[in-house]
């Protein structure tokens, strides 16, 4: 399958070392222009992208296994996205929906109300980033319940604003030195099957893992003070942790019983990435609120909070919004991206990609015990690397694999609380051939590094 990128040859090509001289020249300019706090995984400066390829300033063509961190899920420069955004830009670029509204904002809200889990009446607010969506979800939950406490989880990532840093688990690089953080945020133990069960030699069911959380809430906070439970159905930056079956449904039932707003943060997992439109659908849970961003608009900045009408409407007029929230070009792009997800078979493609990746990783795992765990859903797959004959995290090996891949024209992303995980987030428009070539490079990296 290829949607977009037809003008860009779909092949890995090494013209210079990576990064090459032109990229290095731009990198030197960057040092005197861009704040050092903004990092880049691979400073090969991109000039074109499409299908499964990123073309850099030196003419190198890299296989993209990151999708801009799950943003270009529908494919970079997807024609539906480009055409819709271009038409909108030619009409007008901005009015601010809070001043002069426009129909595309309403259309995106209607689409999200239709697509997100549950057949109840819903409402949507559009914003700019995933962190902004999560922060607004907390605001809405607090306004609706009249409560303050927010429960989040080990290994969670929710953003880089003050409140979402408090909600995020990992200190460096996200939180260290940036405090003090917002209060009334409480962290609960996550269901982490690899480290709870198989590797640890124990067996903790999803229901039992949820009971640990419930006990913590009841004994350390008091459910009557909890406004929201906020969780990624599949954790992103934490390492693509898929909780044990039963964990999420048990927490949803508990939240309903106690009048707690259950918020699914689907910023990274949403929009066909896992083989369903939303990861919540895998266990049939229906969140009260769901936050989305990343893949929503095919590369343009947009995010949303969608949820039960009574909860969303508990916040009065004028209390939600922002100058750029639901920008008209981003709304048009979102309608194009959503059309692609629904009409171009992208959820099914995500499942096919996942099968290819898991098959290749499983073969590597049989040869290299350092591949400790393989997990994820659809085209959101991770490999957790450990020390030989141990479950100790092996961050050094992961870094070396990523470096080898970069030098050989494959972009892979690392992640995880322990920085020991390779995550695979290819655009759903990548071909089987490119995916196979990328994993040939990964296999070569392991052969060189592990013998």
UniProtKB/TrEMBL annotation:
<dbReference type="GO" id="GO:0042802">
    <property type="term" value="F:identical protein binding"/>
</dbReference>
<dbReference type="InterPro" id="IPR050103">
    <property type="entry name" value="Class-III_PLP-dep_AT"/>
</dbReference>
<dbReference type="GO" id="GO:0034386">
    <property type="term" value="F:4-aminobutyrate:2-oxoglutarate transaminase activity"/>
</dbReference>
<protein>
    <recommendedName>
        <fullName>(S)-3-amino-2-methylpropionate transaminase</fullName>
        <ecNumber>2.6.1.19</ecNumber>
        <ecNumber>2.6.1.22</ecNumber>
    </recommendedName>
</protein>
<keyword id="KW-0808">Transferase</keyword>
<dbReference type="InterPro" id="IPR049704">
    <property type="entry name" value="Aminotrans_3_PPA_site"/>
</dbReference>
<comment type="similarity">
    <text>Belongs to the class-III pyridoxal-phosphate-dependent aminotransferase family.</text>
</comment>
<dbReference type="InterPro" id="IPR015422">
    <property type="entry name" value="PyrdxlP-dep_Trfase_small"/>
</dbReference>
<dbReference type="Pfam" id="PF00202">
    <property type="entry name" value="Aminotran_3"/>
</dbReference>
<keyword id="KW-0663">Pyridoxal phosphate</keyword>
<dbReference type="GO" id="GO:0009448">
    <property type="term" value="P:gamma-aminobutyric acid metabolic process"/>
</dbReference>
<dbReference type="GO" id="GO:0030170">
    <property type="term" value="F:pyridoxal phosphate binding"/>
</dbReference>
<comment type="pathway">
    <text>Amino-acid degradation; 4-aminobutanoate degradation.</text>
</comment>
<dbReference type="InterPro" id="IPR015424">
    <property type="entry name" value="PyrdxlP-dep_Trfase"/>
</dbReference>
<keyword id="KW-0032">Aminotransferase</keyword>
<dbReference type="GO" id="GO:0047298">
    <property type="term" value="F:(S)-3-amino-2-methylpropionate transaminase activity"/>
</dbReference>
<dbReference type="InterPro" id="IPR005814">
    <property type="entry name" value="Aminotrans_3"/>
</dbReference>
<dbReference type="InterPro" id="IPR015421">
    <property type="entry name" value="PyrdxlP-dep_Trfase_major"/>
</dbReference>
<dbReference type="InterPro" id="IPR004632">
    <property type="entry name" value="4NH2But_aminotransferase_bac"/>
</dbReference>
